[in-house]
């Protein structure tokens, strides 16, 4: 009978030892390397070596000293990676910072444009623009008062120009389309009024202007007048132009003139001159910036 009890006890001890080894393996696999609970492992090893001695260990989730603040290894790793400052908060912080930097730079550029525009109207600086009255390409009267309430883009040239004027009028047409089709344009945005003023009134009649400008853009308004009227408006806009002396009637000739677009605000004041170095996209952006600054 003692032999039977002894065999039964040995069998139970062997079974218990195998269970302890299995539990030890599970414990080691679930706890991250380097942070294993020594009390747990040493206790399990004690079970393996001296099951009959009744050594008690601290199991997973038992005891206040060995208790973890997380339920799974994944949760522990997640808390370790995120910490008190999460990635989401970091991205939001960086986004807000970038937005503030962009806003302050935009405001700085806007104030600089406003300062330049105000300086152009200041005392001691030559005034660009002024009152005038001419004929448009339809034969009707057109004056500086018709420019009020709109941004005006004024260009001086002549219809017999072989290269520069056609190139600049092509650019003007592209600028008009870029501005009119801009997604930022609203119903309250001041309209853009494109104007072509001839420096060659002897040949550029209203009918000639109408035929010539139709090749570029339908919204361009052509203006002409007498020699004295054209000379007066060119002087007011600081436009240089000259024609050869002693030209006979019907003889072909070229007119030398300044090559600029003059941007005028809705009050008829000069804002900025746009030169040949500006692409249509750059010129359109300059105009849109000034339009956006209007009355801000």
TrEMBL record:
CDD domains registered for this protein in UniProt: SCO
Record carries keyword Ribosomal protein: no
What the entry lists under Pfam families is as follows:
SCO1-SenC
Determine the domain of life of the protein's source: Eukaryota
Q: Which residues cross the membrane?
A: 85-106
Single GO term (MF): copper ion binding
* UniProt keyword annotations, A-Z: Copper, Disulfide bond, Membrane, Metal-binding, Transmembrane, Transmembrane helix
The reply on keyword Ligase is no
Family matches, as InterPro entries: SCO1/SenC, Thioredoxin-like_sf
One Gene Ontology cellular component annotation?
A: mitochondrion
| Disulfide links within the chain | 161-165
Give binding positions for Cu cation.
161, 165, 257
- Single Gene Ontology BP term? mitochondrial respiratory chain complex IV assembly
Family per record: Belongs to the SCO1/2 family.
UniProt name for this protein: Sco1 protein
Organism, per UniProt?
Botryotinia fuckeliana (strain T4) (Noble rot fungus)
